[in-house]
Design brief:
heterodimer; A: Immunoglobulin-like; globular; B: mainly alpha; Immunoglobulin-like; Cytochrome Bc1 Complex, Chain D, domain 2; two-stranded antiparallel sheet; about 55% helix; about 5% strand
Chain lengths: ~250, ~325
């Protein structure tokens, strides 16, 4: 009798499920030993000169959007010339950390700008839902592209404060508003890729928990595209590696 | 005598009345547009942010005033339900309209149709060119297309059509656009052969005259501005209407199923750093012929025409200086 009660208890079954998920989850990477890993960090910066933020003249909905917008493409730190919003990934790590997918992400439209301008999320098998908030109270549309292909293009009229869309494919998704064509945002969805970092205000990135070995390290920026380098990770060490940006053709 | 005067007055009155009726008929579509503009649905959904309705509105989408001259009720329903399904990549977003909302909008739009009597238009003009221009305006072609500084960017720009296309091509195209290019966004206006003849005559005239005027304007403006090469080049690019295919800011191209490698006409704002100056000059002067994906397929609808007849050497230099000046900041940097 007692025995039956044990298995009938919902909480117990749930507990067992959670435990087994953990065991199964880790069994896939049983060779991963967090204490026997290394890390890589560095800065992504301009060599000498750097671009000034482009100013965009606003031609409609000025009451909400203002008169001038600054392009968010190049956000450069004046002191060290570090570049913000560069995605850095370590490719092809075997027996490493397990990806922890997110279920939802959010983006805001405020003052006719997307906030954040760029975000990275880990995509699971069930896809990821994007909630789009319209704080402006004017008509925006959310036109999403994967490469040149339109994924969806939906209107968010002034009274519609929130809408939700689900993505199932990894990649660089560009969001654009056709009503206010300066409004652009990037959502990068990574599949089975826990090894990433996005540069901060000073252009710094840092990725840890990498098993020793030699890997390809990749930097991606919306205007600069991709750049790959090799990095060797040793146990208990932080490998230093910078990416430098210079004028084209030099 | 009195009877005669009476009869004359009477007939004059009838004529006047008929004229007024004609005029009323002719502006009915505009009144319908004004009603649509003032409707609750437009107030809620802000269609006028992108579309011109009546006399005012945005310039992102086509002018809607004569929308029912070119689209059927069925087409409008399908379009409103999911624009991307009808025209992949369109800027028109899906408003997720309810069926009731769609019927409300379609109810307004179907009234926005101008009565056009092609025979009458042909009769009232003294020559084919004038008649063609009249028809072009009556059918509101500038709702989507552009000539010079007027019109919209939703269809190809027609400023230089006369040198880009031939009479035969235009005739075949206007007869049945969809037969020539399946799934084209260009509607079939079911024109009479006589109307097509007049329209083609007008379209073929879209070359020299206006351009010569703008060329004079160019040199006058350049003189007063004491213009630098890149400013002179800007005027040249406006005369050539480079934006007709490469987008209003030269940074986006039109779709072209035959354009390699991805079905888009390339933007040219980065052309100055994408090519060696010499090669770029050669493309401008001799034209580009995009490779065809399907060798037996149609002639590419867009290829950059050779501009050697329209440019002299110094104008080419100015144009290159202009192209150099518009390279966006984002394209000027690279990882080391």
């Amino acid at each position: 009798m007692q025995h039956i009660n044990f298995f009938q208890s919902r909480k117990t079954i749930l507990f067992l499920l959670v435990i087994s998920t953990f065991i199964l989850g880790f069994s896939r990477n049983s060779n991963y030993l967090p204490e026997k890993t290394g890390s890589v960090s560095g800065v992504i910066k301009f060599e000498e000169s750097y671009p000034k933020s482009k100013r965009i003249r606003v031609s409609k909905d000025n009451e909400v959007c203002g008169n001038i917008k600054k392009s968010p493409t190049f956000i450069v730190n004046r002191q060290n010339k570090g570049l913000k919003n560069v995605l850095v990934t370590i490719e092809g790590v075997k027996d490493g950390k397990v990806s922890s997918p997110q279920a939802k992400i959010t983006i805001e439209q405020i003052g006719c700008e997307y906030s954040p301008h760029m975000q990275v999320a880990e995509l699971g098998d069930d896809g990821i839902s994007l909630t789009v908030l319209n704080k402006d109270g004017i008509l925006h549309n959310i036109h999403s592209y994967l490469g040149k292909k339109t994924l969806f293009n939906i209107a968010q009229p002034k009274f519609k404060k929130r809408l939700t869309k689900t993505f199932t494919e990894p990649g660089v998704i560009k969001l654009k508003c056709d009503v206010h064509d300066w409004m652009v945002s990037y959502v990068i969805l990574l599949k089975d890729q826990p090894y990433y970092s996005v540069t901060d205000e000073k252009g710094n990135f840092s990725i840890d928990g990498i098993p020793p070995g030699t890997y390809t390290i990749k930097a991606w920026h919306e205007a600069l595209g991709n750049m790959e380098k090799q990095v060797t990770i040793t146990e208990g060490d932080d490998s230093a590696l910078d990416f430098v940006i210079k004028p084209k053709g030099r | 005598m009195r009877t005669l005067i009476f009869l004359m007055l009477f007939s004059a009155a009838i004529t006047a009345e008929a004229g007024a009726a004609d005029k009323k008929k002719d502006t009915a579509y505009l009144k319908a547009a004004e009603r649509f503009l003032k409707s609750d649905i437009v107030k809620q959904k802000n269609c006028n942010i992108c579309h011109t309705i009546g006399k005012s509105g945005g310039t992102v989408g086509p002018i809607l005033n004569q929308v029912s001259n070119r689209r059927s009720v069925e087409w409008l329903r399908k379009w409103l339900k999911d624009p991307n399904e009808v025209k992949p990549g369109t800027k028109m977003p899906n408003f997720q309209f309810s069926d009731i909302e769609i019927e409300t909008i379609v109810g307004y739009l179907k009234e926005m149709k101008r009565e056009i009597d092609g025979t009458e238009i042909l009769a009232r003009n003294s020559n084919l060119l004038e008649a063609g221009k009249d028809l072009f305006q009556s059918y509101d072609c500038l709702a989507c297309h552009r000539i010079g500084k007027t019109g919209r960017f939703n269809g190809p720009n027609l400023t230089w059509l006369g040198i880009r296309k031939t009479r035969d091509w235009e005739t075949v195209w206007l007869r049945d656009p969809d037969a020539y290019k399946p799934n084209t966004f260009m509607p079939n206006y079911h024109l009479e052969e006589s109307e097509i003849e007049a329209l083609v005559t007008y379209l073929e005239s879209l070359t020299g005259g206006e351009n010569e005027t703008s060329r004079e304007w160019e040199s006058i403006t350049a003189f007063f501005l004491d213009a630098r090469p890149r400013e002179r080049g800007r005027l040249v690019s406006e005369r050539l209407a480079c934006w007709s295919c490469h987008g209003p800011n030269l940074d986006e191209g039109e779709r072209n199923p035959n354009a390699q490698p991805d079905g888009f006409v390339p933007p040219i704002n980065t052309s100055y750093i994408d090519f060696e100056e010499e090669d770029l000059a050669a493309i401008i002067m001799q034209g580009s012929i995009p490779l065809k994906i399907d060798a037996d397929g149609q002639t590419p609808p867009f290829s950059c025409p050779p501009w050697n007849d329209a440019l002299d050497e110094s104008e080419l230099d100015d144009l290159l200086a202009f192209l150099n000046s518009i390279v966006p900041e984002s394209a000027k940097w690279e990882f080391e």
